[in-house]
Design brief:
By secondary structure, this protein is an alpha+beta fold. It has helices at residues 11-48, 52-91, 203-213, 223-234, 274-282, 284-287, 300-311, and strands at residues 99-106, 109-114, 123-126, 128-132, 137-143, 148-151, 159-161, 167-171, 177-183, 195-201, 264-265, 270-271. Helices cover 40% and strands 19% of the residues.
């Protein structure tokens, strides 16, 4: 799906696009009228030369035109301001029973927490947001470090994530699909590599995905995967990452319980394959300079085993 506000796939995005087209149309009309008046004035000045009497009448007509233009401009700006206010009010309204998701911005990745009345019903993932088609999704957003801005143009407008403060936005997808998002506020060296994907699914598919995410991590099947799990559990990975059903309980980095089910790693910097996982683990600063994830000093065999184990966590 195109990363564009010109291709709305939800109610709110459609309202924003509609308002944008109105602003563009009014601006184009005003531009054409202003340029037209300017051309007329220039032609009249050239035709009548520097005759003081003629210039005086032209100036009076110009002053009259300016007065009329100011009045029309005031009306247009007021109408546009009212339409923007009404659209904003509509965007902030919840409809139906929303799915509540907490988004936390980090340098440079997105933490995604699906809220539930019970701890057993909560789902935590990273950099991918799955939502059911047709159901409002209320995002409760904050930042862990600096100001970020959540923007999925096909579904909604921008909303800032501010440290120590919670902001809200509602997403509603009208059709299934994958919609790309991006941090829209400069947040540091790797701002451009802070992407998020919204996967809008049919309600039954979303329910199946959520049930799968509630399951503990898959146990390794092959000997190489078992070796990879040993490498993970005995190394420094557990200090920052967590895997449900294992001793790993770190909270600094993304939850890796189902990391193999994600389409990309490092907030969209690389596709999710065993090769790219190994590349990322061996030297993260080479992929995203400035990242706080350190390079792992592993042998080639251990590195491959670890990557295969993580890839198996679907």
């Amino acid at each position: 799906m195109n990363h564009s506000a010109l291709h709305p796939a939800g109610l709110h995005a459609a309202q924003i696009a509609h308002l944008g087209w109105i602003f563009l149309a009014v601006s184009c009309v005003v531009y054409v009228v202003v340029i037209g008046i300017l051309i007329v004035v220039l032609v009249q000045r050239r035709r009548h030369g520097s005759d003081p009497t003629t210039l005086s009448r032209a100036e009076r007509r110009a002053l009259t035109s300016v007065g009329i233009a100011v009045g029309i401009t005031t009306v247009l700006v007021t109408c546009l301001a009212v339409s923007e206010f009404l659209t904003r009010r509509t965007l902030e309204q919840d409809t139906g029973e929303p799915l509540r998701v907490r988004i936390i911005g980090h340098q440079w990745w997105w933490e995604v927490q699906y809220q539930s009345d019970t701890a057993a019903g909560q789902v935590q993932t990273a950099n991918e947001l799955h939502i059911p088609v047709g159901r409002p999704v209320q995002l409760q957003m904050t930042s862990q470090d600096v100001i970020h801005s959540f923007w999925v143009p096909n579904l909604q407008g921008k909303r800032d994530l501010i440290p120590g403060h919670t902001t809200h936005i509602v997403l509603v997808a009208d059709q299934a699909g994958r919609y790309e998002g991006q941090c829209a506020e400069f947040c540091g060296f790797q701002h451009a590599k802070m992407r998020i994907v919204v996967d809008a699914q049919r309600p039954a598919d979303f329910d199946a995905w959520r049930q799968a995410q509630l399951q503990p991590a898959r146990e390794p099947a092959s000997e190489q995967e078992k070796r990879g799990k040993q490498v993970f559990d005995s190394g420094t990975c557990v200090m920052c990452h967590s895997i449900q059903g294992s001793p790993a309980g770190g909270t600094i980095g993304p939850d890796l319980t189902h990391v193999g089910s994600r389409s990309s790693i490092a907030a969209g910097a690389l596709p999710n394959t065993p090769q790219t996982l190994a590349l990322w683990i061996s030297n993260p600063p080479a992929i995203k300079p400035g990242t706080t994830m350190p390079a792992a000093a592993l042998s080639g065999e251990d590195l491959l085993s670890l990557a295969l184990y993580l890839e198996s966590l679907k």
